[in-house]
Amino acid sequence: MAFDRSAYPATNQTWRILSHANENSYAVGAFNCYNDDGVIAVIRAAEAKRSPAIIQLFPWTMHFQGTEFIRYVARAAHAAAVPIAVHLDHCIKPDDVELALGLPFDSIMVDASSLDEEANIRHCKTVVDRARELNITIEAELGRIEGGEDGLPSVDSMVLTQPEEAETFVRRTGVHFLAPAFGNIHGGYPAGGAEKSWDLPRLASIGKLVSSTTPLALHGTHPVSDALFQKTIPLGVRKINLNRTVRDEYTEFVARNAGSLELTVLKTKGVEVYTRSIERMMDVLGSSHRCTT
Fold first, then answer.
1. pLDDT tens for residues 64-102?
2. Among 147, 276, 168, 269, which residue's Cα sits nearest to residue 219?
3. Residue 129 designated active-site
4. Are 221 and 229 in contact (CB under 8 A)?
5. Which one from 37, 89, 96, 111 is the annotated catalytic residue?
6. Contact 182, 145 (CB under 8 A)
7. Beta-bridge partner residues of 177
């Protein structure tokens, strides 16, 4: 059945989740998942905490686990007792964008940050126009966030987002969520950590100009203190990407116990560890107990 295009993007799950967060001044975790353990842990944590959530996948997943895995994730997320969206992070290659638009993602991050600004705008607008017909919302990166993540090319030079350019970019592309570069780094921070690297006044200026209509997405979140996460929320950050922050305890548990526990026990207990880490961050971000019905 075709969706009502006149209601878009209000019919979109990611948009509904982040709009509610915007209206009520909290943030939602977008949890990078690599296997079914991660998917199950996000759903269980969200239902236990009565929290909205976003399950976030990389393009690597489309190729390694295949399109049927994507469909499983979407079915499981959308069957949950609380709102959970499925998002594709850092979709860079044109062929991956094509593949993703044919899958049941609620939202896609189109990463054309390696292009110049005009090319980035043209590319993002083209994808936004196509995604509208599919009830998919689009996140984009303006500037260039340094570093790299699993399965993604490393970026060697940072380009900070200019607040006025952010306003123009959002208006010209129609993107629904914006990932700014304000000193945040994928994959780890130098001496002084995120506290030294982040330019919070720049983030505040960007948020003041665009966040009322375009929620901000925070990338480059490990390691980051709970207090620093919470400082970004009043500045317009509504989607906070979380990877190792919630995955490390699970990974350590599996590595420590893989040779001594049966696989069924290892997975059961591993998911319990993973779930607790996610629940804790839901409390930190203020998304717990936001789903009242």
1. 999 999 999 999 999 999 999 999 999 999 999 999 999
2. 147
3. no
4. yes
5. 89
6. no
7. 139
Vertex 145: Cα angle to 168 and 116 (nearest 5):
50
Q: What's the pLDDT tens digit per position in 211-245?
A: 999 999 999 999 999 999 999 999 999 999 999 99
DSSP secondary structure string for all residues of the chain? ----GGGTTTT-HHHHHHHHHHHHT--EEEEE--SHHHHHHHHHHHHHHT--EEEEE-HHHHHHT-HHHHHHHHHHHHTSSS-EEEEEEEE-SHHHHHHHHTTT-SEEEE--TTS-HHHHHHHHHHHHHHHHTTT-EEEEEESB-EE--TTS--B-S-BPPPHHHHHHHHHHH--SEEEE-SS-EET---TTHHHHH--HHHHHHHHHHHTTTS-EEE---TT--HHHHHHHGGGTEEEEEESHHHHHHHHHHHHHHTTTS-HHHHHHHHHHHHHHHHHHHHHHHT-TT----
d(CA 293, CA 290): 9
pTM over cut 0.85: yes
